[in-house]
Amino acid sequence: MRAVIQRVSEASVRIAGVTKGAIAQGLLVLLAVEEADTPADLEWLSGKIVRLRVFDDENGVMNRSVQEIQGGLLVVSQFTLFASTKKGNRPSYSRSARPEIAVPLYEAFLQRLALDLGRPVQSGEFGADMQVSLTNDGPVTIIIDSKARE
Predict the structure, then answer these.
(1) Which is catalytic among the residues 6, 55, 79, 109?
(2) Domain architecture of the chain: domains with CATH
(3) What is the 3-state secondary structure (H, E, C) of 68-122?
(4) Is 25 a catalytic residue?
(5) For this structure, is 126 an active site residue?
(6) Which of 16, 94, 118, 123 has the highest CB neighbour count under 10 A?
(7) Catalytic residue among 38, 70, 80, 141
């Protein structure tokens, strides 16, 4: 799994003009699933996101997690995170998992994230045409890949 995580003041996702998910301060997580992903990948990534210390403490140091600040989480599926531009100018998405693999892992990831966070998370809709709005706070943007584990 690959995630682009953005610290936000606010974020929302709309589908066909209707808001599907929205948060105030917290993390927007753009998530891609690849063919080789397993439940172990989603468990590791969920724990990493919930405990990621990217929010300021009382001294202005990024030392608090989204869990500690009681922030929100908005997860949006984005298969294009596994784009390969190695050949030509048209990206290949062959590393992205097919829906029959990706959807169950995406849904399990949402459930695990809510469990690790201790409250519900907001999300988009897998495979939908979505419009994502956000105010990146900082800006703080972090990329995490469950295979690299760095």
Answers:
(1) 79
(2) 2-145 (3.50.80.10)
(3) CCCCEEEEEECHHHHCECCCCCCCECCCECCHHHHHHHHHHHHHHHHHHHCCCCE
(4) no
(5) no
(6) 123
(7) 80
